[in-house]
Each structure stands twice: as structure tokens, then as C-alpha cells.
Amino acid sequence: MFEVVRQGERVSGLAPGVDRRHLARLRAGRVEIDRDLDLHGLDAPSAREDVTFELRDAYAEGERCVRIVHGRGLRSPGGPVLKEAVLAWLQAPPLANLVLAFETAPPEHGGAGALLVLLRRRRPQGK
After folding, report:
1. Which of 9, 19, 30, 47 is disulfide-compatible with 42, CB 3.0–4.6 A?
2. Grouped pLDDT means (10 residues each) for the chain, 127 residues
3. In Å, how far from its chain's centre is CA 9?
4. ∠ CA 27-10-73, rounded to 5°
5. Three state DSSP letters for 40-72
């Protein structure tokens, strides 16, 4: 079960047993972003498909940090649908097995409309 902390529009999550310093690095923007995924204009099922594909592909390629731009939901009638959905998807299988931590992006990387996701290191395939 992820440890999730919310402060206003900001949110952070940490997988069990993971060092909290990963969150500090994400919050400070000290992790190189390897991949961007923009969900603007997508409905929830399409967004889930894209998030699942991109995170699995990033993990397979050995990439560590993915920026997911979900928007703030300010023009959505029901509020931030994709933001909440992305948070749920990251904490549930199959993605939870790939994710170490996530944090609202710093302002220069999208602020409350984006999330930085830190992936686990890919384990070498055994022979």
C-alpha cells in the first residue's frame, strides 16, 4: 500500500519500504525526466491505456522518470478526473509493481497539472 500525502493540489506517493529521499529529489526537480506523456484531450479509458503502455515501455527501456501531464481539471465539470484516475492507476497492479514514488511536478515542469513518476530499476533478465 502506497503512502500518499496530499497538501492542497500537491500529492506525493511512496511505495512501501522506499527511501523518502526519492520524494525530495522529485519535489526539487533533481531527477532527469526521461519521457513525457500528455493526457490532455483523452477520456479516462484512453488515458489509462496510454499510461499503462508508456510506463511499461519506459521501464523496459531502463528509463527512470516519466512526467505525466494530466491537467488540473479546472475546466472539467466534475473536477480533476484524470488527475485522480492517474493516482489510482499508479497505486494498483500492474503499475504499482513498477513505481517507486510519484510527486506533483515542480512549477517549471507543470506544477499541479503534472506528476513525476519514478520507476524501479529494471532487473537484468536471468538466463
Report:
1. 47
2. 94 96 92 96 94 98 97 70 94 97 95 96 70
3. 15
4. 125
5. CCCCHHHHHHHHHHHHHHHHHCCCCEEEEECCC
Q: Give the pLDDT of residue 78.
A: 66
Give me the half-sphere count of Cα atoms (radius 13 Å) on the Cβ side of residue 19: 6
**β partners of residue 97:** none
According to CATH, the topology of domain 15-119 is: Ribosomal Protein S8; Chain: A, domain 1 (3.30.1370)
pLDDT at 77: 66
Q: What ranges do the domains of the chain cover?
A: 15-119
Q: Are 98 and 64 in contact (CB under 8 A)?
A: no
Place of cell 531527477: 31
